[in-house]
Amino acid sequence: MRNTAKITTAVLAAGALTFGLSACGSGSDSGKADPNAALTVAATPTPQGEILTYVKDHLAQKAGLKLEVKEFTDYVTPNTAVQQGQVDANYFQHKPYLDDFNKKNGTDIVPVPGGTVHLEPLGVYSQSVKKLADLKKGATVALPNDTTNEARALKLLEANGVIKLKAGAGYDATPKDVTDNPKGLKFKELEAAQLPRSLGDVDAAVINGNYALEAKLSPAKDALAAESAKNNPYANFLAVKKGNENDPRVKKLAKLLTSPEVKKFIEDKYDGAVVPAF
After folding, report:
1. What number of other Cβ atoms are within 10 A of residue 131's Cβ?
2. How far apart are the first and last CA of the chain?
3. How far apart are CA 232 and CA 16, in angstroms?
4. Is the pLDDT of residue 2 over 80?
5. How far apart are CA 164 and CA 183, in angstroms?
6. How far is it, in rounded angstroms, from Cα 181 to Cα 138?
7. Ranges of H-type helices in the chain
8. Across-strand partners of 226?
9. What is the per-residue pLDDT for 26?
10. Number of H helices, E strands in the chain
C-alpha cells in the first residue's frame, strides 16, 4: 500500500478517533481559542507521548498550560484529527512526511515556529545477521510503506553500501529507483507500525525510531546501521492547522518542548536512541 497518508472517513469510522470536538479546547480557529482551555495534542506513544507526558506532569502547570495527550499508533490519524479540528496540535512527524501528506491530501498543516524537538534515528535491524554485509543473496528487507520514510530507509541502505539509487532520487524514492542491488535484495513494504513484528519473517527491517523503542530496540545498540543526526532533515516537531500557530497555548507548549528540562529528559531517558534537535 503506497499511500498510507490518504484521508478516508473509514479511518475515523473504524474507531481510531473516539473523541469529538468537545474533547479539545478549541476548534480550528486560533482566534476563537480559549487561552485557559486544555490544549489537546495527538502523538504517537514513544517517544512523543512520553515527552508530552513529562511536560504535562513537570512543566505545564507552572507555565499556566492545561495539556491533554491523545496517543495514536499510526501516522495518519494525528494529521486528520488536526485538519478536522478534533485536536489542537500534533507531535509525531518530520517535514518531508508532512509535505508529502499535505500534497496528497490537500491539507494545510504547518510546523509551529521553534517547535522542532527531537530526532529518532532510523535503523536497520535483524534477528538473523549481525552485520549488513552478512545478508545473503536474495534476502528480504522490510521497509516502511509511507512515501518519505521508505525513501529515507532506502537512503540509509545506500549510505551503508547495500544498494545504489539513481542520481537525484529524493524524498519520494522507491525500490524502483534502485540502480545497483548486488545481493538481489527483495523489498517488502509494510506499514511502519508493523515493522518490528515482521523481524521474524524477514532477513532485516528498516524501522522508525519510535516503533523500535516500543519494541525495546535501540538504534544506538541494536541497529546494524543507523542514521546520523548531523544535518538530518527528519527531526520531529509540533504541528497545527495553518492559522493556529499563534494560539498562545501552542506557543507555550513549543517553548516547553524546547526547554533545557526537556533536553535533559530526552538525553537521560533515551541514551542516544532519541536525540534533541534544538
Report:
1. 9
2. 34
3. 31
4. no
5. 12
6. 10
7. 9-11, 50-58, 77-83, 95-105, 147-159, 195-198, 209-214, 248-257, 260-270
8. 123
9. 44
10. 9, 13
Cα–Cα distance, 127 to 199 (Å, whole number): 6
User: Mind giving me the DSSP string for 17-72?
Assistant: ----GGGSS--S-GGG--TTSPEEEEE-IIIIIHHHHHHHHHTTTTTT--EEEEE-
Q: What distance in Å separates the CA atoms of residue 163 and residue 208, rounded to the nearest whole number?
A: 19
Residue pair 98/239 in contact (Cβ under 8 Å)? The answer is yes
Grid coordinates in use for 64?
Answer: 499556566
* Residue 32, pLDDT score: 61
- Could you give the CA distance from residue 177 to residue 182 in angstroms, rounded to a whole number? 14
Among residues 21, 50, 4, 67, which one has the least CA distance to residue 265? 50
Q: Is 122 within 8 Å of 152 (Cβ atoms)?
A: yes
- How many other β-carbons are positioned within 10 Å of the β-carbon of residue 100? 20
Burial of 183 (0-12, 13-18, 19+ CB in 10 A): middle
Residue 191 CA to residue 11 CA, distance in Å, equals: 14
Dihedral pair phi/psi, residue 185, rounded to 5°: -60, 145
Separation of alpha carbons 169 and 151, rounded Å: 8
CA distance 87 to 162: 41
Instruction: Show the cell assigned to 241.
Output: 492547522
In this prediction, residue 6 carries a pLDDT of 35
The mean pLDDT of 39-44, rounded to a whole number, is 98
Question: What residues are paired with 71 via a beta bridge?
Answer: 43
Residue position matching grid coordinates 535501540: 218
Cell numbers linked to 239: 504541528
Model confidence at 25: pLDDT above 70: no
Q: What are the tens digits of pLDDT across the range 217-233? A: 988 889 999 998 777 88
Phi and psi at residue 198, in whole multiples of 5°?
A: -85, -10
